[in-house]
Amino acid sequence: MERNVFVSRRRIDGFDVLPSDSAEAHVLAVDDSLVDRKVIEQLLKISSFKVTAVDSGRRALQFLGLDEEKSSSVGFDGLKVDLIITDYCMPGMTGYELLKKIKESSNFREIPVVIMSSENVIARIDRCLEEGAEDFFVKPVKLSDVKRLKDYMMREVRFGTANSGGTNKRKLQESCDPTSSEPSISSLSSSSSDSPSRSPISPSSASSSIPTPLDSPVRRLKMTNTGGLI
Amino acid sequence: MDGVAQLQKQLVDFTDSLFQEGFLDEQFNQLQQLQDESNPDFVVEVVSLFFEDSERLLNELAKALEQKTIDFRKVDAHVHQFKGSSSSIGAQRVQKVCIAFRNYCEEQNIEGVKPWHRCLKCLQQVKLEYSLVKNKLETLFKIEKQLIAAGGSIPT
């Protein structure tokens, strides 16, 4: 397994940052939980990512230079962010709100965003994917989840577009079995068999001929039992 | 080499028992896999953070339940956090009582038992499970330390 070479950290305006002259991808991790931040940081480091971990959506935006309150003249250009992974439930700004802000920004909407949550609520996952999230990890996040992150970045590099989440979204919609879910997820068993109207971004989920991969988010959902579906 | 072999066996047996009795789950294994030469104390560090965080949350919960008017949303938020952190380190029994805490407190139909009473009972259970797992983990780390001090290595 690749290992990160130990590099010394600099502090810029309260953020721990790593020098950006290495070839490794840089992930911005956002989580208000101290324990979870430590875990996600280590998961990412072990997987050969550079990590900056912050404790709120607000701090994440500040780091990117997107915060309206602080002047964006604080140049963080040397610290390009290649992926953002954020917790959903956070006080102040939720992960969903952070996702929206990023996708609304012309400078940063290309950055893939992954959401983490301890609650495997289908409606929540749907909302995030519709808003442009690449994937949704149910906590506790595993090493196998983090290893998948490379796929999102490689797709970005290879195709150079932001629409790399299309495939995953399609899988999620097709594989979600309405009969095993709660009634509130009626949007999945929509009467229209053509394009699901609730999902403007992703391609229409027509046939369900693609089987659920073993490690897809939906399968993880079904097997995880953290409090159940609402 | 007898001492080392004995300590290794003690460690393996003790760890096994923690999993069998449900104190720890697969997530704890995941954490151990994340430990390597460049982060040799990772598990101890995360667990220490968990202890700190838990003690803070237990204090907040006790305070919240002492108020004249209980803010149940706040109580729920704290329990949610506790559930999350215990799940992240694999403290399965703590996680389970946190889930029960939220369900029980939200349950509207329990006759004769006031919500805050229920919450107090739940808090007691969470405290109990937390102190049990804390004790177990501290013992685990102690055996590991002894093993390393005796010149042995932790079996993977």
Keywords:
heterodimer; A: 230 residues; alpha/beta; 5-stranded parallel sheet; two-stranded antiparallel ribbon; 7 helices; B: 156 residues; mainly alpha; 77% helix; elongated
List the strand order in the largest sheet of chain A.
Answer: 4-3-5-6-7
What oligomeric state best describes the polypeptide chains here?
A: heterodimer
Order of helices and strands of chain B: HHHHHH
Share of residues in strands of chain B: under 5%
Number of helices of chain B: 6
Largest interface: A-B, 22 and 28 residues
Given helix and strand content, the structural type of chain B is mainly alpha
Query: How would a textbook summarize the main sheet of chain A?
Result: 5 strands, parallel
Region (Disordered) (chain A): 163-230
Keywords (chain A): Phosphoprotein, Transcription, Transcription regulation, Two-component regulatory system
Domain Response regulatory (chain A): 26-154
Biased composition (Low complexity) (chain A): 175-216
Protein described:
Chain A contains seven helices and seven strands, in the order βββαβαβαβαβααα. With 230 residues, chain A is an alpha/beta fold. In chain A, α4 (122-130) links the parallel β6 (113-117) and β7 (135-138). The longest helix of chain A is centred in the middle third of the chain and has 17 residues, at 143-159. Mean pLDDT of chain A is 70; it is low at 2-10, 18-22, 71-75, 155-216 and 218-230. Chain B has helices at residues 2-20, 26-33, 42-66, 72-89, 92-106, 115-149. In chain B, α3 (42-66) packs antiparallel against α6, α4 packs antiparallel against α5 and α5 (92-106) packs antiparallel against α6 (115-149). The longest helix of chain B has 35 residues, at 115-149. Chain B is elongated, with a radius of gyration of 18 Å. At the A-B interface, α1 of A face α2, α3, α4 and α5 of B.
